[in-house]
Amino acid sequence: MSRDARWQALLELLVEQGRLDVDEAATALGVSAATIRRDFDQLAEQQMLVRTRGGALVHGVSYELPLRYKTARQASEKQRIAKAVADLVAPGEAVGLTGGTTTTEVARALAVRPELAGGSPALTIVTNALNIANELAVRPQFKIVVTGGVARPQSYELTGPLAGGVLNQITMDVAVLGVGAFDVTHGASAHDEDEAGINRLLCERAERVVVAADSTKLGKRTFARICATAQVDTLVTDTAVSDEMAARFTEAGVTVVAV
Questions:
Q1: Nearest to 22 by CA among 46, 51, 2, 65
Q2: How far apart are CA 104 and CA 98, in angstroms?
Q3: How does DSSP classify residue 99?
Q4: How far apart are CA 111 and CA 95, in angstroms?
Q5: Peptide bond before 91: cis, by omega within 30 degrees of 0?
């Protein structure tokens, strides 16, 4: 197991359990206690966790894994979801993309669609995610519009009034949301209130709204609300979604696409 994979596994265990001791983590990952101690020390230096005697605690009250440590989670599901979302976009449309691992995959899926290989522009992409803008900026057939704002290191997203100022001046055909959770009763939500605020504005400025979320995020809620379920037109998720869950979203007026 590489160091990056080991760190990702450690952080995911820490998020799930709240605290870990060295021996427990070593057993779970099949490595030596000395390796885990070094990992804990190095992650503590990066302020990814709080080192304790014999173990580690999550860093802060509301903990969220930074984007770079989430890329391998539900990877195949996210790629299928991304392709299905990309297929919902018509050439020439203006598309809003929030930050996140699933929307990053959507950007990549759009980039390789043959129908979008040319045009003036083939698509207009509006995003507050620095990593998405960076990946798509080399595609001359896409017009890339990036909001201003303050960069959020966990998700590479720009937030705050500068980002809102740009979004208030434009309209889009479709907004694609990456969410922390999506529940029929509580709507779509994010871990961070500033991120949720920009995502909410993206929804308001779009003709239609697509939530791209793997099934592990459904039926749950996180700290900050993005929008009500009634504002979402389509949910694209994976086939692990239960029939009951899909039926509840359908009854609420959301078209459910499971791939």
A1: 51
A2: 9
A3: S
A4: 13
A5: no
**What residue type is 59 in one-letter code?**
H
β 55-58/49-52 pair status: antiparallel
CA-nearest of 31, 179, 204 to 102 is 179
Query: Under a CB-based contact definition with an 8 Å cutoff, are residues 81 and 259 in contact?
Result: yes
H/E stretch holding 187 reads strand 187-190
Tokens of 11: 């952080």
Q: Which two tokens stand for residue 204?
A: 């308001």
Rounded Cα distance between 171 and 254, Å, is 22
Mind listing the pLDDT tens digit for each residue in 17-65?
A: 778 999 999 999 999 999 999 999 998 887 778 899 999 987 654 455 5
**CA dihedral over 148, 139, 201, 241, signed as positive or negative:** negative
DSSP H helices, 137-192, are 161-167
Is pLDDT of 241 > 90?
yes
Question: What number is the average pLDDT over the span 159-168?
Answer: 95
Burial of 39 (0-12, 13-18, 19+ CB in 10 A): buried
Contact status, residue 85 vs residue 106, Cβ threshold 8 Å? yes
In angstroms, the CA 114 to CA 171 distance is 25
Count other C-beta atoms under 10 Å from residue 174's C-beta: 20
Whether 67 contacts 101, CB under 8 Å: yes
Radius of gyration of the chain (CA): 19
CA angle, 242 then 244 then 250, to 5°: 105
Q: Which of 228, 196, 254, 209 shows the shortest CA–CA distance to 85?
A: 209
The bridge status of strand 206-212 relative to strand 181-183 is unpaired
